[in-house]
Amino acid sequence: MAVVYDPEHGLFTLKTKDTDYQMKVDELGYLLHLYYGSRTDQNMDYRLTFLDRGFSGNPAEKHLDKTYSLDTLPQEYPFKGTGDYRGIAFKMENADGAVSCDLRYLRHEIRDGKYSLNRLPSARGERTDYNGVSGGASAANVQTLVIVLADAVSGVEVELYYSVYEAENVITRAAKIRNGGADRVVIRRALSCCLDSLSGSYDLVHFHGRHTYEMQRERTPVGHAAVTIGSRRGTSSHQHNPAVILADHNATEESGAVTGCILSFSGSFLCEAEKDQFEQTRFLIGMNDEQLAYPLMPGEELEAPECILSYTKQGFRDLSLRFHDFLRAYVIRDPYGRKPHPVLINSWEAAYFDFDGETIVHLAEEAKDLGMDMVVMDDGWFGQRNDDLRALGDWTPNEEKLGCSLGELIRRIEEKGLKFGIWIEPEMVNEDSDLYRAHPDWALKVPGKAPVYARNQLVLDFSRKEVRDSIFNNIAKVLDQGHVSYVKWDMNRSVADVYSLEHVPGKVRYEYVAGVYAFLKALTERYPELIIEGCSGGGGRFDAGMLHYEPQIWASDNSDACDRVMIQYGLSYFYPSSTVGAHVSAVPNHQTGRITPLSTRGITAMAGTFGYELDPAKLTKEERDEIRTQIRDYKRFESLVREGDYYRLSDPFTDGISAWAFVSPDRCTALISYVCLENHGNMDVKYIRAAGLDPEQRYAVEAEGNILSGAALMEAGLPVLPPLMDYKAGQILLKAVGET
Ligand code: GLA
Question: Taking CB atoms and a 6 Å cutoff, what residues make up the pocket around ligand 1?
C-alpha cells in the first residue's frame, strides 16, 4: 500500500520504495507535517515537542496551554489566521474583508490511480515508457490520498491531493480550493507545497539566469533571512526556473540527502525557504500571489498547480535520474514515442527575416543533401512580418513573399523528401497588425495607461476564450494547408499590464496561464501527431507545465557551444535530454562571437533534440562532410539519448571540462561526451569517471581499442589529454563485451 492510514493516531504515511512522507491530524484537527525522508516505518510524532514559547500564540481550545502553538509546530498547509507568523501556503479574504481562516481536518479519501486537475496539467497515472509503450504493470502502482480541510466560518474547503508513485520514489501534490459557503471569498495565496523540517541545515539549489544565459546553478544556504526566488513575469521565466532542490549542506552529486521539487506551472511562481526562530526550516513553492486576488463565489473552485517531489539520500545524480524517468514516463506527451525525432534545420539564424519561398526550398534541398529530416520556417512568413516590429497576430501566410501558397510550399518541401515545421507566436500582437486594428481591446492593457512594450509587441488576453478561439481558428487554417509535422510555439516577452475586460484584475494572471493550457490542449487534440517545440526567447518558459504539451523546448536563444553546455548542465538537474532543443549554429556565434570547432557544436547539440540553425550555403566542403558524419552519429545514438539514463560526469563550473554520459537501460552501451572549457600551456590531464555502468562488466572503449572493467571506468576514469586547441570536444563509446 502506497498510502497508509492509521486511524488511531490520525496518521497518514505516503510510502514509496525508499521514502516515507508522513502527516498527522492532531487532537484539534490541525494537519501537521511529520516527516519526508528515507523509509523509517515509524510513527514520527515522537519528534514533536511542546514548549512554552513566548509570543507564539495558542488556539482557543488551548488558550490555557501555552505549549501548543501553530507558530512552532510543523504544518502541512499553513495558512494565515492561526498565529503562524512564518511564511504561509494559504491566505483568504472573507466576505467581511477579514484575512483569516481556520482550516481543520474534515475528511479524507484513499483511492487507486492518479488524481487529475481540470484546468492545469497534472501527471498521468499510467506509465508510458520512453519507447512509446503505455500502461503495463506499474499502472496500479499509483495511489492517491485526498485530505479535505475546512474553514467552519466561511465554508471554504481546501482539498490537498497527493499521488504516490511507489516504484518511482515520487510524490505529486496539488490543491483545490472550493467555496462551500454562502458568501464570496477572495483567495490571496494558494501555494502548492509546504515542507517543514524540524531539524537539519539546508541549501536551496536554484537556477537563475537571463535571456540567452539561462539555468545557472546557485547554491544558497538557508538561514534566518529567507531565500526567495520566483517570477513576476507571467511566465516561469529565464530569470529563475520553477524547479529547485533543498539539499543538505554536505550533499554532493553522489551522496547526501536532497529533496527536489518541480512545479508544473508556466506562470509567475514563488519559492521561499527560511529558518524560523527555532532553527526549523520551512520550504514553500507555488504560483506567485503578487497580483492574485481570486474571488470564489459559492460553489466555485480554484486549482493550485501540481508539484513533483522526490527525496533521496544519494545526492543530486540519483534525484536527476528519478526526475528524468518520471517526466518521460508520466508527464511528457511525445507523439513520436518510439520513432526517432527528426533532425531539423531552422531558418532563424540562417536567414532571420530575410527569406522567401525559394530560400526555404533551397534550405530543404541542402538539408536533404546533408541527411536532415525536416526544415522549419521560423519567424517572418506571415502578414507584413519582415522585421520584428509588426504583424504578430496576422496568421495568414504572406504568399507574395513565399512566392506561392503555404500548401504549395509544403508540397515542394515534401517532394524534396523532407518534413515541414513552422514558427508561431499565438499569444502576441503588434499594434501594426490587422488583428490589432480590428480588435484593439484584445491586448492586455490597463485603462488610461500607455502599455509596456517589449520587442514592440503586446500580449493578447488569453484569459478570454473569444480571443483564444479566434487565434486558434486562424492558426488551424495555417496548419490545415498541408502536412505540418512540427510547430515552434514562441512567447517573446514578459506580461506587464495585468488587466482584462473579462476578469477582475486579481484573476487575470491565473486565467491567462489556464487559457494558454486550454489552447495547447485543443491544439494537441486536433493535431495529435504534431510535435510542438516550446520557446520563449529560448528558455523563458522551460517548465514541466509546458512539457505536458510540448515534448521539447528550445533551451536558449544562445546557441554558443560553451554557454550551451552550462545551460544544458543546469537543465539536466530536472529535465531529460529529450526535452532540450539544441542546434548547431554558425561561427562566430551570433550571440557571443565565440568560435568553437564544428565537432564541439555537434557534440553539445547531441545532448538534446538535435538540429541545425545555419545557412548550409556558407559551409565548406569539409564542413558539409563533417555535418553528414554528425547526423549519422546522432542517428546512431538517438535512442540512447532519448531512452538512456543521463549522468553528469563533471561540474563545468569548477572542473574546466564539461562531461556527461548516456547509458542504455541494460547498461551495455554508454556514450560519454566532453567539452574542454579550459586551455592552458602544459596543462594537466583530466580524468572522466564514467557512471551507471555494471562494475563487473567489461567494456570495449571504441576507437581506442581498450577493454576495461566497468569498475575501473567508474572508479578511476578515462584520461582526456590536454586539448591543444580551444574548446576541444570528444565522444567515447563504451560497449559491453561478451563475458562478465
Ligand atoms: C525568439 C526565438 C528565436 C526565434 C525568434 C523569432 O527569439 O527564441 O529562436 O524564433 O524569436 O522572432
Answer: 348, 378-379, 388, 423, 490, 492, 535, 537-538, 554, 557
